[in-house]
Amino acid sequence: MKTQKAIISFSKTKDHELIDIAQTIANKMTNNPLFTSTPISLIDLQAAIAAYSSALIKAQNGSKEDTVTKNAYRVTLENELSTLGTYVNLIAAGNILKLQSAGFPLTKLPEPVGILEAPILTVSYGNNAGEMGINITPVPKASGYIILYAPTPAPADNNEWSSKTISSSKFTLTHLKSETKYVFKAAAMSAEANKMDIYNFSTPIEKIVP
Fold first, then answer.
1. Which residues contact 87 (CB under 8 A, 6 or more apart)?
2. Which residues of 27-59 are buried (b: 16+ CB within 10 A; e: fewer)?
């Protein structure tokens, strides 16, 4: 199961936001009994925050050299936060309460997708005998699609149909029996649907395979 972690990369964080994040971390980590052997001095971290903050103010209306200096201080601060965050992740080992106590922003957990809606299925004749083209209207958040097919009359139990799982919405079924009427249906897959073996299937389509 996927767990949350402290974010340790801040390259895309805005300049002013980085100061706020770093200060929150410094405040939370100071005298934190859960993290007593930090790989960097929190005094040095506070000094890096102060240096970067001053350089940022100076660079706002300053010279190119001031901007270069600000960027250099930012790199130093980012490196210290990354080192500290790596340590936090190691000690916390996924414990959400420990992670929250450190003040780092946390990675997001993927939201459950659930059982997805039935797709729209189109079945067309293939280029060769025994082939049928499958075209499924893409369903948002689908991890793939499952195609069920069987000669008519199709079995009542889906488990008795032939099946094919595909990662894209287009596919060609081959090695079907020519001059035989088949019924086809498809469903969008998700982690939850696969685990529970519950799918919303499209309206069945019957066609004679050429």
1. 35, 38, 39
2. ebbeebeebeebeeebeebeebbebbbebbeeb
For the record, the structure tokens of 176 come out as: 């079907």
**How many angstroms separate the CA atoms of 76 and 82, rounded?**
10
How does pLDDT run across 107-159, given as a tens digit for each residue?
998 788 899 999 999 999 999 999 999 999 999 999 999 999 999 999 999 99
pTM of the model as a whole: 0.60
Strands 180-189 and 205-209: antiparallel
What residues have CB less than 8 Å from 84, skipping those under 6 apart?
A: 25, 29, 38, 39, 40, 45
Query: Cα 209 vs. chain centroid, distance in angstroms?
Result: 40
Closest of 201, 141, 207 to residue 173, by C-alpha: 207
Distance CA 148, CA 165 (A): 9
- Cβ partners under 8 Å of residue 183, min gap 6: 149, 150, 151, 152, 154, 204, 205, 206
Give CA 107 to chain center in angstroms: 10
Backbone phi and psi for residue 53, each to the nearest 5 degrees, phi listed first: -60, -45
Burial of 133-156, coded b for 16+ CB within 10 Å and e otherwise, reads ebebeebeebeebbbbbbeeebee
* Fold adopted by 121-209: Immunoglobulin-like (2.60.40)
